[in-house]
Amino acid sequence: MGFDGLFFGRVDPQDYAERYRTKTMEMIWKGSANLGEESWLFTGVIPRTYTPPDSFCFDMLCQDEPIKDDPQLHDYNVPERVQAFIKAAHDQVYILFI
């Protein structure tokens, strides 16, 4: 098909709930019985759909703290923000697999 994988940002709420419950957010989509494995596509549902991890929304309407990467700033926060992002990534793995 020309793709290595495809991720859905939107999915039926009942399907999402079932996939979340059974930890099946990722799967192999078998696109065609005639084409066999050549048509198989790694597929997944983005766990939080379009929602960013908590405290990482940088939209103009969000109030999350920006990443301040100049060490000379009094509120330099890169180490804390990196740790928060790593935690968010671990939390997402928990949603998918554990």
TrEMBL record:
Lineage: Eukaryota, Metazoa, Spiralia, Gnathifera, Rotifera
GO molecular function: alpha-mannosidase activity
One cellular component term from this protein's GO annotations in UniProt: lysosome
Cited SUPFAM superfamilies: Glycoside hydrolase/deacetylase
Any Pfam family hit: Glyco_hydro_38N
Location of the Glycoside hydrolase family 38 N-terminal domain: 1-87
Organism from which the protein derives: Rotaria sordida
Protein name according to UniProt: Glycoside hydrolase family 38 N-terminal domain-containing protein
Gene Ontology biological process terms in this record: mannose metabolic process
Source domain of life: Eukaryota
Coiled-coil positions: none
